[in-house]
Inverse folding.
């Protein structure tokens, strides 16, 4: 486990070696064309609502009043593979599925069995076998194995950098600006004040680099914003911005975006209602991201993930409680899609995890490792030794999710 | 080293020095803190005239079933009320003469988060803090916990108002059932902590005991107030943390909460969070154990735990160990250079740093570690905002004098030199506010 102290020291060392001058060190360091966007849905997306297994004989009975009707019925699911469908609010995504650019994984979970949001989110991001209040995320460790120059940092879209990007490798973050920028003279002076404060020095250098990057990429339309950037209403604009950043030929290759509002304990609705009102902007944002990506879409993988699924049965308040396995999906021109993959455990009572939750068939880390290996070229050895290093729970990268 | 102690008392324990600096604290920093535990809440006068949660709710209940009237209520009453609460609370923190006490209010308010991220909470989040948190801040944890869980804001935020015992009279008639949200967060976030040794069955047992704890509606005698409704309560005995609770209505959950407040895992959990807030992100075990022991010895008497905290050695070692959150930065800057002339700008400053009052992203509250606050984007925003506050500051104080007062013996030579060499008063003030010594506590 990286302690806070190591975190700061590590950051200080890398900050000086990678960021000197703020210009690309050399074009020889160009990474490939491959791009990766991680979208974290915080709160626990109900996978059985987003991708209802209407063809599973136990689905209707187990879900009761929350079961989405089968395809063809009013408010019914969109047909995917005959067993699984897709929520009607995700309809804009069906063109991706039809073009074989969308892969649905209906029963994924992290390695730790926990129904705590906070532990589950930590494990989703730390890449270990359990939550440990550590200060390092798997995507930051992976960045260390990707060739990158200062203009192509891992990028967090939002005010804060999420845990998955915390660590020794410099990263950038971007949010729509609302203040006149400080002038360079003042920032130069502030930078000198931070010389002996590793945390502040690193963040300021990264921030200034990100601003330069954003100045090149963003036009005025992207610069307005206020309030909570994780709220569903903000997602589409931020997803479009992510697409714009990733489209830049010499720009960032790895980005992370978050969206909240998925903790549907009460009145989550079926084809309409609270959950549907979250799914619609999610789909809209992903479509906007795709159009900003332009031709870079062919080299892109977007992974949309959440910390856990929700209970199979409806709770007493027409919602669902924290569960275990949930759905994830991959989108992009580089995805070997058009299918529902990873296996399906079934919903008969004896198949449920602890009699209440969908059982996991695939480890979330294996999905990430598969993308890092097949799409971004991180070796199996590095994945196992450094990116997902849990000795008590080694990772086997999933194969075949990426077009080769 | 008295002036370092005064810096720590004013910043780590308080909310930053006001104009005039550390002079009132310097002769006895610990005494200044301890006195605040025994005196009246110095922020309370700034909160005068704000309505009770009950009165707001009683009015809301009348319109809630009519979508048009409800929208009108939220727009004309609910939202302006939130803005007023947020503004008065922040102005109160900027003006208060009991800043240690105020920090404690915020610590507990964050521990027991209710968030406006859930829309309906907006209109009484402020009342919740005033009614459930503030009066118990130096009392017993047990009383604080009970006040919090009984408050309508909490019962609504974590869905207990819709949780119904499946075998209760109402549950059988309406085919409704349990919602385990409040129960889970009580165990995970408020008392035992996630590693505190409870199981899913305990979550369900506590959720059952909590059924019936709700808010009185139109048909009850005191609309908008806490009420126990027996027809919703799950009948029968419950086994919770290996202890059998026989059927006893409202008393079941009350007894369970009292038991949780006295639990050793709770003492450990609270002690760790306090040490993290007042010492360092990764606090030393010695300090955690000392606070834990004091908690257990006094039956969770918070005043005694805070006294022990002030008298520990660990908080007085590294004056810059903690990073200010966005809100702490805004409040401390405005305490030093004065609030902006336009009151609205107080809230827009908080909004810019992504930390609106009662706006935590989840029931876990705002994070309390540096890495969560100092990222590339957030740090640039902090600097830009400090520049703006420097520009707007009406104070005519000499920045070098202010730096002396605010940073005292903690100031680095390079910071003092940069402030002295600045091109303008405004730039000097911006550098002071952006310096690591001011951004940390």
């Amino acid at each position: 486990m990286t302690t806070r102290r190591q975190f700061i020291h590590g950051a200080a060392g890398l900050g000086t070696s990678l960021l000197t001058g703020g210009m690309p060190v050399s074009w020889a360091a160009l990474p490939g064309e491959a791009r990766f966007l991680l979208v974290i849905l915080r709160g626990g997306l109900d996978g059985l609502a987003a991708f209802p297994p209407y063809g599973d004989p136990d689905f209707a009975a187990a879900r009761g009043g929350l079961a989405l009707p089968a395809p063809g019925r009013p408010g019914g699911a969109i047909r995917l593979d005959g067993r699984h469908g897709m929520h009607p609010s995700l309809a804009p995504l069906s063109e991706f599925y039809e073009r074989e650019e969308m892969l649905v994984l209906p029963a994924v979970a992290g390695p730790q069995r926990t129904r705590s949001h906070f532990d589950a989110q930590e494990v989703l991001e730390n890449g270990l076998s359990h939550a440990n209040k550590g200060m390092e995320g798997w995507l930051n460790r992976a960045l260390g194995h990707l060739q990158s120059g200062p203009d192509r940092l891992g990028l967090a879209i939002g005010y804060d950098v999420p845990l998955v990007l915390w660590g020794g490798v410099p990263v950038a973050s971007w949010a729509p600006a609302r203040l006149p920028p400080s002038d360079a003279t003042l920032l130069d002076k502030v930078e000198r004040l931070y010389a002996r404060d590793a945390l502040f020095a690193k963040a300021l250098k990264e921030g200034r680099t990100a601003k330069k990057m954003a100045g090149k990429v963003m036009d005025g339309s992207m610069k307005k914003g206020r309030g909570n950037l994780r709220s569903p209403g903000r997602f589409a604009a931020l997803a479009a911005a992510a697409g714009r950043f990733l489209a830049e030929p010499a720009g960032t290759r790895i980005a992370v975006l978050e969206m909240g509002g998925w903790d549907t304990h009460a009145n989550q609705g079926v084809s309409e209602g609270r959950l549907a009102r979250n799914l619609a902007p999610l789909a809209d944002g992903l479509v906007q991201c795709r159009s900003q990506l332009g031709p870079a879409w062919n080299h892109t993988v977007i992974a949309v993930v959440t910390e856990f699924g929700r209970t199979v049965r409806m709770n007493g308040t027409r919602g669902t409680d924290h569960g275990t396995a949930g759905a994830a999906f991959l989108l992009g021109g580089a995805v070997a899609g058009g299918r529902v993959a990873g296996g399906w455990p079934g919903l008969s009572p004896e198949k449920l995890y602890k009699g209440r939750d969908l059982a996991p068939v695939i480890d979330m880390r294996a999905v990430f490792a598969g993308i890092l290996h097949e799409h971004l070229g991180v070796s199996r050895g590095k994945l196992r030794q450094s990116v997902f290093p849990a000795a008590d729970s080694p990772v086997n990268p999933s194969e075949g999710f990426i077009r080769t | 080293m008295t002036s370092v102690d005064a810096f720590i008392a004013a910043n780590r324990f308080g909310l930053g020095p006001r104009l005039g600096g550390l002079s009132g604290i310097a002769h006895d920093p610990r005494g200044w803190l301890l006195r605040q535990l025994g005196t009246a809440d110095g922020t309370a006068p700034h909160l005068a005239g704000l309505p009770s949660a009950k009165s707001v709710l009683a009015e809301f209940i009348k319109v809630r079933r009519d979508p048009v009237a409800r929208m009108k209520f939220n727009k004309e009453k609910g939202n302006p009320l939130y803005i007023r609460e947020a503004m008065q609370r922040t102005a109160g923190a900027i003006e208060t003469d009991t800043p240690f006490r105020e920090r404690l209010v915020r610590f507990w308010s964050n521990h027991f988060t209710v968030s406006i991220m859930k829309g309906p909470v907006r209109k009484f989040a402020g009342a919740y803090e005033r009614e459930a948190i503030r009066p118990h801040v130096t009392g017993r944890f047990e009383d604080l916990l009970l006040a919090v869980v009984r408050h309508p804001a909490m019962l609504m935020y974590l869905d207990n108002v819709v949780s119904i015992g499946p075998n209760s009279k109402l549950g059988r008639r309406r085919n409704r059932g349990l919602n385990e949200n409040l129960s889970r967060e009580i165990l995970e976030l408020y008392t035992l902590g996630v590693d505190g040794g409870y199981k899913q069955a305990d979550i369900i047992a506590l959720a059952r005991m909590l059924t019936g704890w709700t808010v009185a509606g139109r048909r009850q005698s005191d609309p908008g107030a806490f009420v126990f409704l027996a027809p919703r309560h799950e009948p029968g005995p419950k086994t919770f943390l290996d202890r059998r609770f026989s059927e006893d209505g409202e008393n079941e959950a009350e007894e369970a909460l009292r038991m949780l407040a006295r639990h050793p895992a709770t003492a450990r959990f609270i002690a760790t969070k306090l040490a993290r807030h007042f010492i360092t992100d990764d606090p030393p075990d010695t300090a955690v154990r000392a606070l834990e022991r004091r908690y257990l010895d006094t039956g969770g008497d918070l005043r005694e735990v805070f006294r022990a905290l002030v008298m520990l050695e660990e908080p007085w070692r590294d004056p810059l160990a903690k990073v200010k959150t966005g809100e702490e930065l805004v409040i401390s800057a405005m305490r030093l250079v004065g609030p902006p002339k336009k009151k609205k700008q107080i809230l827009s400053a908080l909004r810019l740093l992504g930390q609106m009052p009662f706006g935590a992203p989840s029931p876990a509250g705002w994070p309390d570690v540096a890495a969560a606050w100092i990222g590339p984007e957030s740090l640039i925003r902090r600097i830009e905002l400090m520049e703006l506050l420097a520009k707007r500051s009406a104070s005519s104080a000499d920045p070098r004098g202010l730096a002396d007062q605010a940073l005292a013996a903690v100031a680095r030579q390079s910071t003092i030199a940069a402030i002295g060499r600045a091109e303008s008063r405004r730039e000097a003030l911006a550098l002071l506010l952006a310096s690591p010594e001011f951004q940390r506590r």
